[in-house]
Amino acid sequence: MKKVFKITAPEGLHARPCTLLVTAVTPFSSDVQLIYNDKSVNLKSIMGVMAQGISTGSVVTISASGVDEEALISKVTEVITSEGLGVEC
Length: 89
Description:
Elements: E1 2-7, H1 15-25, E2 31-36, E3 39-42, H2 46-51, E4 59-65, H3 69-82, E5 86-88
Antiparallel strand pairs: 1-4, 1-5, 2-3, 2-4
């Protein structure tokens, strides 16, 4: 299951937004990846996500696979939209 987002936060995905996302997905058992510029990192890894250097206007894909993938994608969507980090594409 995949969903695409455009990052709208003025500072991009820096430490605070990355922490929010990693914290949101950690309780889920599904594998979850953040894909940006053809590079995929584990969304449960704060260092991996921050190393992507995702700036405002970037388009990222969140990909989840596992027993609770739908709930995981729903949670990611909720965090990204409610925290003003981005919008669904």
